[in-house]
Amino acid sequence: MAIDHNLVIIPVLNKIDLPSADIPRVTREIVSLIGCDEADIIPVSAKVGTNVEKVLDAIVERIPEPRSIAEGGKIIANNAEGKIPDSVKLGLIFDSQYDSYRGVVIYIKLFSGEIKRGDKITLMSTDTVVDILEVGCFKPEYHPLPSLKAGEIGYIVTGIKTLQEARVGDTIFAGAEQYKHPIPGFQKVTPYVFAGVYPVDTEDYNQLKTDIEKLKMSDSSLTNEHEVSPALGHGFRCGFLGLLHMEIVKERLDREFDLDVILTSPQVTYQVMMPGDHSHDFKNTPLKLEKLGDRTYTRLWIRNPEHLPEPGTYEWMEEPIVKLEIITRSDMVGEMMKLAQEHRGIYKNQTYIDETRSILTYEIPMAEIITDFYDDLKSRSSGYASMSYEQLNYKRDDLVKIDILVNNERISAFSTIAHRSKAYHVGVELCTKLKEAIPKQLFSIPIQAAIGAKVIARETISAYRKDVTGYLYGGDVTRKNKLLDKQKKGKKKMKEFGKVSIPSETFIDILKKK
User: What angle do CA 345, 351, 352 make, to 5 degrees?
Assistant: First the structure.
């Protein structure tokens, strides 16, 4: 990203005092990574103080001073680089922090004009007008100043209470309307992974609601909406940027608020294309009307399998695709390729960092890597391999919804979406888990996995067996058969009218993220 934006990079090689330090090899890696000269790399040991002063000198010598638009700063607004007058205030929000006393403190880089306390500015993504209560710079703590001028970096306090109003990448503006154009590059943060968050004790729902709102004050990328589970009670469907973000939120709920929560297995957002205008049928589901040829389609964003329309009402489904990079030892490349292909990965490229390490690049469905992919990666590579991924696009594929039926009754909480090629294995796994978790009844219980009306997997929990002939000590065999027939009729009637009560512990065992 730094290279793409033509930023100055100072390559520093640290910890050179360690006995295991391999300076020549790491130097070659840095040259290969950023394309610099070996002479530009500064070997440093902060522990013993080697070359620390060279790093400070390089910062002063190599990094250029800030420039405003009028001085040729690299920014384009309204396609008029260098033509924006100084009276126009234009700045970029690059970070923000929530302060308990001041509210949201916005970190900005000012490209044009001068801002001071009492000025009114507009946050362009939300078109919110706010008053500046304080401006300052970092030393490194907050240091108030009379004003910030073009080319400078600092902070402003406006009294905003939520980070959602001060989004990173947004533009602050004040001035003539003809120059009111955002700085290019801003994108609203979009969550890619969704999971249910429920309190272990259902009485803690109000506390969970309050704690999530507090988290959102310092984490603008976290989203939530209320949902109700038939087994887990009231909770929230939360959106996360990825798996690491999800784990961090769970850990913060535990450490900062001492709240024990159940985190269900993560799901990605699918897109469903339905012919016609269905905006009135799905008022609580994100949607968009699109024109393909001469036909109108409704594109739905499905975050929960329970909200998927009935089969036959939509034409196709799309799933998110990510670019996956696996860094591994060269002797484990074959095993890593096998792992990626098992999860429907499409091979794109292979590069060598050095003679012992490689980078494998794949395009792979996000749904395949948010469950047990990372654990398998570490297991098969003996802990040596690592991975990173980034969102690419959505791709149309043969995806199906798998429903679970217990005693011929559909349990919506267990529904999931999977690729048709893996539907059978997913169905068998769910049925097997439920067979082990649901207690026996006085009648047999069928557990089925189905796609629409087609059953693809089945397990049966056998009934309790009572020896109704135990007290017989002899006599004709018809006496025994009569008692067995009577028991058989009773079980058949019980199966027709009996209800299977699934304990909440069973839901937790099946739905909870491992």
Answer: 130
- Give one word for 202, left, alpha or beta, with left for phi > 0 and alpha for psi -120 to 50: alpha
Residues 506 and 429 reside in one and the same domain: yes
Task: Report d(CA 491, CA 464) in Å as an integer.
Answer: 10
C-alpha 231: how far from chain center: 24
- The CA distances from residue 406 to 337, 450, 500, 501, in Å, are 38, 11, 8, 10
Q: State whether residue 34 is helix, strand or coil.
A: helix
Contact 267, 194 (CB under 8 A): yes
pLDDT tens for each residue of 303-347: 888 888 888 888 999 999 999 999 998 889 999 999 999 999 999
Residues 446 and 460 sit within 8 Å (Cβ to Cβ): yes
Contact 131, 123 (CB under 8 A): no
| pTM, entire model | 0.69
Environment class of residue 250 by beta-carbon count within 10 Å: exposed (0-12), middle (13-18) or buried (19+)? buried
Closest-CA residue to 431 (of 451, 409, 450, 454): 450
Tens of pLDDT, residue by residue over 19-30, are: 888 888 888 888
Contact call for residues 358 and 335 (beta carbons, < 8 A) = no
Of 116, 146, 179, which marks where a domain is finished?
A: 179
Number of Cα atoms under 13 Å in the Cβ half of residue 192 = 20
CA pair distance 3, 182, nearest whole angstrom: 23
Residue type at 491?
K
Report whether 359 contacts 327 (CB < 8 A). yes
| DSSP label of 45 | B
As given in the structure block, the two tokens for residue 363 are: 């395009």
Q: What is the pLDDT of residues 109-126, one digit of tens each?
A: 888 888 999 899 988 888
Give CA–CA dist 240/189, Å, rounded. 10
Strand, helix or coil for residue 304:
coil
391-421 burial: b if 16+ Cβ within 10 Å, else e: eeebeebebbbbbbbbbeeebebbbbbbbee
Instruction: Say how many domains are in the chain.
Output: 6
Structural domain span for residue 482? 401-511
SS3 (DSSP) at 116: strand
Do 454 and 370 share a domain, yes or no? no
What CATH number corresponds to the domain at position 370?
3.30.70.240
Q: Quick check: 448 and 405 in contact, CB under 8 A?
A: yes
